[in-house]
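User: Design a sequence. Structure:
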């Protein structure tokens, strides 16, 4: 990542964070009362674990593809530098975007959690959201 891109990202972060409070939501889960409901909720847990394993597979594939893309860009860069008679100063890691796959992971796991809570509620459990301010809160 270039220095100018980094500074722009840092500046954007400060601008966004200065705009207002940032909230996070946690969830209290109260299990279903019936035996059938608890069995159903256990199935939801198994489905969530499978979903998260699928997310991990997607992230691994994303990282593999991102490494291939970075390697290809590096080879093109190195060939261009050689053709110009210039020194090769970058490495394949210079072209790797580590944020690319973290977005995939976060959105996928968020979907798994949303599906789990929906399934849990469908089994008769109670899902109680608790939203709290974590940054830029008014005192």
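Assistant: Done.
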């Amino acid at each position: 990542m270039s220095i100018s891109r980094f500074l722009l990202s840092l500046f954007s972060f400060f601008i966004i964070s200065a705009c207002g409070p940032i909230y996070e939501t946690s969830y209290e889960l109260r299990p279903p009362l019936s035996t059938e409901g608890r069995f159903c909720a256990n199935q939801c847990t198994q489905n969530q674990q499978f979903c998260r394993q699928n997310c991990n597979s997607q992230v691994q594939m994303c990282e593999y593809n991102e490494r291939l893309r970075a390697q290809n860009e590096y080879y093109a860069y190195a060939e261009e530098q050689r053709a110009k008679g210039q020194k090769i100063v970058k490495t394949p890691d210079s072209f790797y975007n580590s944020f690319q796959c973290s977005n995939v992971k976060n959105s996928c796991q968020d979907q798994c959690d949303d599906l789990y809570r929906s399934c849990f509620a469908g089994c008769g459990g109670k899902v109680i959201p608790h939203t709290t301010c974590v940054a830029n809160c008014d005192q």
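Strands lie at 22-30, 126-135. The longest helix spans residues 35-84.
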